[in-house]
Design goal:
Elements lengths: L9 H11 L7 E3 L14 E3 L7 E2 L2 E2 L4 H15 L7 H13 L6 H9 L5
Parallel strand pairs: 1-2
Antiparallel strand pairs: 3-4
Helix pairs in contact: 2-3
Length: 119
């Protein structure tokens, strides 16, 4: 999915989020950017004010830095760049690795699903 800069307004961001995110089963955390105004209608939406520290049980304002650091390291170190054609695949792969980083059987799980023998 290619997103044009013109879509980064309240209407466009709201459409993108509702199309790509399970809003009933997710916690949506955004910054104070005005483009997220309509997202505030989502029940579990939290706005981070970077002027204040934010901590809530296991969620911190710096929580998002981990996955993005992985994307940046992959960009600079392993891939050197992402073409538009492969960006979704590269970022999805990194998201899988990040989301399963504590699961010892993640590699076996991935292999089983790649060959169509998912558990």
């Amino acid at each position: 999915m290619v997103i044009n800069k013109s879509q980064l307004n309240a209407k466009g961001l709201n459409e993108i989020i509702h199309r790509r995110v399970d809003t009933s089963g997710s916690i949506i955390m955004t910054e104070e950017y005005g483009g997220y105004h309509d997202v505030k209608k989502i029940p579990r939406h939290y706005v981070l004010n970077h002027q204040r520290p934010y901590v809530s049980v296991d969620t911190y304002s710096n929580t998002v830095e981990g996955p993005w650091a992985s994307v940046k390291r992959s960009w600079y170190g392993q891939r050197h760049c992402y073409s538009r054609k492969w960006t979704d695949y590269c970022v999805s792969g990194l998201a899988f690795k990040y989301n399963n980083r504590k699961y010892a059987g993640a590699f076996d799980y991935l292999l089983h699903h790649m060959v169509g023998r998912g558990q």
